[in-house]
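tmp note - Regulatory protein, luxR family
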Amino acid sequence: MHFTSKELELRERIITALHSSLSLPLVLEATRAPLLELTPADHMGLCVMTPGPPLDFQWLVPGHRLTLLDEYPRWADSDFVRGPIFAQPNVVLRDTQMLPRRALEASALYRRSQELDLRLEHVMAVLLPAKETLLGAFTLYRDQRVEFSEHDAALLTSLTPHLTNALRNCRDMQAARSGARLLEELYNRPDAGFLVVLPPSHELLRSERAKVLLDKWFTPSDLHASGIPGMLLERLNALARMHPDERLKHNPLVALRGETYLVVRFIELPQPEGPAQWALSINEVPMSIPLPQHMRQQLTPRQVDIAQGILRNWSNEQIAEHLKLSEDTVKTHVRDIFGRLKVDNRADFLYQASHLNRPI
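out:
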């Protein structure tokens, strides 16, 4: 969909704001003004959830507090937004697509908003599955009886990958708000190796786990003069030059050797001044990866069978032979699976599945 120059300018400001901090409240506050102007809307909120049961949630609302959300636990079971967005993760939905106007006005949440003189007349929302243990429901509200349009939804859709990325990065790093604590947190994590690098090639930190993994995966001839594998520096410096939209397509880096994948995720660390440093999260993932429940719920039974074949690193021909299908049928299913799960290719699917099974 075509965006105006003003909309593109606001979108750039929003993306910059989403990468401005690793504190989720600060990110939302920085994002608030340009995002409410872009859509436009009167209020925004992010409900951060840990899947249950019970479903644990926390509302983060920049700007003026919405008293209705302070009471949300009381009204959560009658929230007409939650069901539709959970049924279609990553899809921006307007209230007109969720229920008829008469049903909206009869809902407990709408009636309570009127009692509190909030006048929340229209809503647009999207579920952001950051990982299997972390979900975000991002919601925009309008006070006036002016429906959100298809164009408004397209604008928000263009930002959802960046919203998801910000949610995941901020929650991964929430225990490390300052630079010193961040390095300590990265260094002490037992489940992943970390490098911290100042581009183009200055290494600031290497955790013990990173030393083990890099020694295992790379030979001395693979190393740059800095001691960092050349392929990692090449990807890092390419990412540093890219627009954030392009970064999403090229992050992470996935390599295969034998029965194991090496997955490297590149995280830009906000700096108050000076050039940005990057954390490289390094993890091994076995070739045979379980299909996460979140993905399974979005697929048909036949697509589940084929997805499991992909996770075993089988070719389309091998999957077809195993399931007694034609190779063309398998190709069609694979394309539909990637579309439903919003992944770009096999490497991206393998990474996303491993990430949901074991966040890295």
